[in-house]
């Protein structure tokens, strides 16, 4: 079973950055008002932030990192680990983590690498950077997680265009052998359903050709080309509704976690319908489950840290908390986490770029 426990690492702070451009759901002109109202009632997304044409995920993460480093008054020369988790890096080669090391002015005596995960990227990244730092070999680390998924969607595909927002986040961690945040993880992976959320062409399995950009209309009237994201909502819901509660249950059973002790459930902000189904299935009260999808949409891997900075900034700073987290991402990949914080986690004000 894929369990992992991390000790001796503390979350020092979290920061997030979103593009300044905002798109309102009710401004979408390919659906009548009545259908948009039904969409908002079910999916819950009223608006989202969309990156400019020349803005990348790394730009958002870089701004968030600069803000957090300043707020924490960290000496950049002491940062010795950087992890970037995203599907939307700057280039196919090199790793975006390397360019971020240079842009942030971090020392060359640093370990930096990318994780190619989307919606599940935060918990995968947190477990990996936490495990590396728990040895004491690394003293201060940055986990940068985000996506500019809006660049991958077709305007003529309401199932993806209306839901995905853009964001970049950073979580600062430090080695603390005594006053640390206890982190426990569980993971699931099922690659048999990979095509339920994928981009058909542009990788090395199916390289881009001139035909990749030809718009095609499917039987549902959705127009896309082969470089656009394709998402089978029915498959995603079915998998998430089964595997997210399964992962949460496995985590809680393995580590003997009492559900009544949970202060907050922070889920990947997929959409209202799915999040509410999961919340009710595992029987966590609504008042313990913060949401940010109404104003930011599904921000992929950045949705959990974004929600923490916007909705839990005060309790994270002042209280010891027991947090339950869960996410599902393309692949399919699933991750759940239980984190006992020690308080004094700084959440920076949201940055707009």
Automatic annotation (TrEMBL):
<dbReference type="GO" id="GO:0004315">
    <property type="term" value="F:3-oxoacyl-[acyl-carrier-protein] synthase activity"/>
</dbReference>
<dbReference type="GO" id="GO:0006633">
    <property type="term" value="P:fatty acid biosynthetic process"/>
</dbReference>
<keyword id="KW-0808">Transferase</keyword>
<dbReference type="GO" id="GO:0044550">
    <property type="term" value="P:secondary metabolite biosynthetic process"/>
</dbReference>
<dbReference type="Pfam" id="PF08545">
    <property type="entry name" value="ACP_syn_III"/>
</dbReference>
<protein>
    <recommendedName>
        <fullName>Ketoacyl-ACP synthase III</fullName>
    </recommendedName>
</protein>
<dbReference type="InterPro" id="IPR013751">
    <property type="entry name" value="ACP_syn_III_N"/>
</dbReference>
<keyword id="KW-0012">Acyltransferase</keyword>
<dbReference type="InterPro" id="IPR016039">
    <property type="entry name" value="Thiolase-like"/>
</dbReference>
<feature type="domain" description="Beta-ketoacyl-[acyl-carrier-protein] synthase III C-terminal">
    <location>
        <begin position="256"/>
        <end position="340"/>
    </location>
</feature>
<dbReference type="Pfam" id="PF08541">
    <property type="entry name" value="ACP_syn_III_C"/>
</dbReference>
<feature type="domain" description="Beta-ketoacyl-[acyl-carrier-protein] synthase III N-terminal">
    <location>
        <begin position="113"/>
        <end position="191"/>
    </location>
</feature>
<dbReference type="InterPro" id="IPR013747">
    <property type="entry name" value="ACP_syn_III_C"/>
</dbReference>
């Amino acid at each position: 079973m894929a369990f992992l426990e991390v000790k001796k690492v503390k979350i020092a702070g979290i920061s997030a950055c979103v593009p300044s451009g905002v798109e309102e759901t009710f401004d979408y002109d390919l659906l009548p008002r009545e259908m948009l109202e039904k969409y908002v009632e079910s999916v819950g997304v009223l608006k989202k932030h969309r990156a400019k044409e020349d803005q990348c995920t790394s730009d958002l993460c870089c701004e968030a990192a600069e803000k957090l480093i300043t707020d924490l008054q960290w000496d950049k020369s002491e940062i010795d680990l950087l992890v970037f988790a995203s599907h939307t890096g700057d280039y196919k080669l090199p790793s975006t983590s390397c360019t971020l090391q240079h842009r942030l002015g971090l020392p060359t005596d640093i370990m930096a690498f990318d994780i190619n995960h989307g919606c599940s990227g935060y918990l995968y990244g947190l477990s990996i950077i936490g495990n590396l730092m728990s040895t004491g070999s690394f003293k201060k680390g940055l986990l940068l997680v985000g996506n500019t998924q809006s660049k991958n969607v077709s305007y003529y595909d309401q199932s993806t265009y209306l839901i995905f927002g853009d964001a970049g986040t950073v979580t600062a961690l430090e080695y603390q052998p005594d006053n640390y945040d206890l982190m426990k993880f569980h993971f699931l992976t099922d690659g048999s359903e990979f095509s339920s959320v994928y981009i058909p062409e542009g990788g090395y399995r199916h390289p881009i050709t001139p035909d990749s950009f030809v718009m095609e209309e499917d039987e549902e009237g959705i127009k896309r080309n082969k470089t656009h994201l394709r998402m089978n909502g029915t498959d995603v819901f079915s998998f998430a509704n089964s595997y997210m509660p399964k992962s949460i249950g496995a985590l809680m059973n393995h580590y003997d976690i009492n559900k009544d002790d949970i202060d907050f459930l922070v889920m990947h902000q997929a959409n209202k319908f799915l999040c509410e189904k999961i919340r009710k299935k595992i029987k966590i009260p609504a008042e313990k489950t913060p949401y940010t999808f109404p104003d930011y949409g599904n921000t992929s891997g950045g949705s959990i840290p974004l929600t923490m900075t916007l909705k839990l900034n005060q309790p994270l700073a002042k209280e010891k908390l027991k947090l339950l987290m869960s996410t599902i991402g393309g692949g399919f990949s699933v991750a759940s986490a239980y984190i006992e914080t020690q308080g004094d986690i700084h959440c920076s004000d949201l940055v707009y770029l």
